[in-house]
Amino acid sequence: MIAIVLFGKPGAGKGTQAEFLKEKYNLTHISTGDVFRYNLKNGTELGNQAKVFIDKGELVPDSITINMLADEVAKNMDKAGFLFDGFPRTIKQAEALEALLEEKGIDFVGTIGLDANDEVLVARILERGKTSGRADDQDETKIRNRYKEYNEKTAPLIEFYNNKNQYAAVDGIGSIEEVTERLSKVIDTLV
Ligand code: AMP
């Protein structure tokens, strides 16, 4: 089995692209944001724990997020591998992911970043907020806080993966099909 991380700022198009790539490469798509939202909607204990952070546009603590991710991986060992979206978001999560994949015998083939400019993305998220029903997509202060969290805690992962030769980036601006094509080209060199 293989694992690929789709990396990028909020609104960069990770979820949209994952929908296409998971079919093409027979991967289980795990979006930690989606798993949190599912739990929020269903009022689970995990959902209640995560709610306070998500509502403020802050990252959910590593311990909660890492356990959740490990459960999702354990439940989905039936495809050719995994496409992670929105995880890892901290160095600690990246280290935990490495250990988990090694334990499960899953080959980590790399991280692919979707590059895009902040102002384009904030506008895109506000637009998405009109229909996504996500409170964290509707308030510009919360959105800006998500970028602050990204810059402080998540951006250092680029260097982390670059140092291991496990990072590539593509231009995330373009039509959905164009971006899928760019990502596929990179994935084809990795798998
Ligand atoms: P997303 O749908 O990926 O934009 O995630 C929405 C929210 O869920 C984030 O703003 C965080 O509050 C939380 N979240 C999702 N993934 C993670 C993660 N890997 N670590 C911590 N918090 C996360």
Automatic annotation (TrEMBL):
EC number(s) given by UniProt: 2.7.4.3
Binding-site residues for ATP, renumbered to this chain: G11, A12, G13, K14, G15, T16, R128, G174
Pathway: Purine metabolism; AMP biosynthesis via salvage pathway; AMP from ADP: step 1/1
Residue ranges of the region described as NMP: 31-60
Compartments, as annotated in UniProt: Cytoplasm
GO biological process: AMP salvage
Domain of life: Bacteria
Catalytic activity: AMP + ATP = 2 ADP
Pfam families: ADK
A GO CC annotation given for this chain: cytoplasm
Matching InterPro entries: Adenylat/UMP-CMP_kin, Adenylat_kinase_CS, P-loop_NTPase
Record key words, sorted: ATP-binding, Cytoplasm, Kinase, Nucleotide biosynthesis, Nucleotide-binding, Transferase
Annotated binding of AMP, by residue: T32, R37, E58, L59, V60, G86, F87, P88, R89, Q93, R134, R146
Catalytic class of the enzyme: transferase
GO MF assignments: AMP kinase activity; ATP binding
UniProt keyword annotation of Acetylation present: no
Known function: Catalyzes the reversible transfer of the terminal phosphate group between ATP and AMP. Plays an important role in cellular energy homeostasis and in adenine nucleotide metabolism.
Family, per entry: Belongs to the adenylate kinase family.
Domain notes from UniProt: Consists of three domains, a large central CORE domain and two small peripheral domains, NMPbind and LID, which undergo movements during catalysis. The LID domain closes over the site of phosphoryl transfer upon ATP binding. Assembling and dissambling the active center during each catalytic cycle provides an effective means to prevent ATP hydrolysis.
Subunit structure: Monomer.
Protein name in the entry: Adenylate kinase
Lineage of origin: Bacteria, Pseudomonadati, Bacteroidota, Flavobacteriia, Flavobacteriales
Annotated gene: adk
